[in-house]
Design goal:
Helix content: under 10%
Structural class: mainly beta
Shape: globular
Strand order of the largest sheet: 1-2-3-4
């Protein structure tokens, strides 16, 4: 699977700045500043197989990037330079997101796949821009979405193999959404909710 695109992350200001990032198997992490007309390869510590990618909101020109690879969970900057390991240990950071109020809160989230057994996977969060990470009470998360009023309510949802989950404490703990028995792999929340 050389050069297989695994994930795409658009700049929160894509309509204005045209920036996007691709995590690929074989070509590494690619960045475009011209709406995908051309790409440059970014440093992922010589690992050409990143998977998870997230781009922070609200930091035009100096956005923070979260990058998941099979051997390291990295944090870096769109401005360049080598990214640093943000969470030491075993696991593959696959599903990544910054809180909508990242600039003020320093919060971000990551699903860490430890192996094929979903019971040992981890869902972690940081509230200090990646300096430290803590586990939430759920393991495998396939997707997450934040309430439009996240900054005030601290509400977010996560899809998991067991259920749709909701958190009202800024992702520190989750509970099953009892009114829905379906398992969802993806979540989108309308901005006019």
């Amino acid at each position: 699977h050389p050069r297989l695109v695994r994930n795409v992350a658009l700049s929160p200001d894509f309509a204005r700045d045209g920036c996007l990032w691709l995590s690929t198997y074989g070509a590494g992490l690619l960045a475009s500043r011209d709406r995908g007309a051309s790409f440059e390869r970014l440093d992922t510590q010589d690992w050409a197989f990143p998977d998870g990618i997230a781009v922070s909101p609200g930091e035009t020109g100096r956005r923070t990037l979260l990058i998941g690879t099979p051997n390291a969970f990295l944090i870096g900057s769109e401005a360049g330079g080598a990214p640093k390991i943000t969470l030491p240990g075993k696991g593959f950071a696959r599903v990544l997101a910054f809180a909508p109020d990242w600039v003020a809160s320093g919060m971000a989230f990551a699903h860490i796949a430890t192996d094929t057994n979903v019971k040992t996977n981890r869902f972690v969060f940081t509230a200090d821009r990646g300096a430290t990470w803590a586990d939430s009470n759920c393991g495998t998360v396939w997707d997450m979405a934040f309430a439009p009023d996240w900054a005030e309510s601290g509400t977010m949802w996560a899809s998991s193999p067991d259920a749709l989950l909701v958190s009202h404490d800024r992702g520190r703990s989750f509970a099953k959404v009892e009114s829905l028995d379906e398992v969802l792999e993806s979540i989108v929340i309308g901005q006019d909710w």
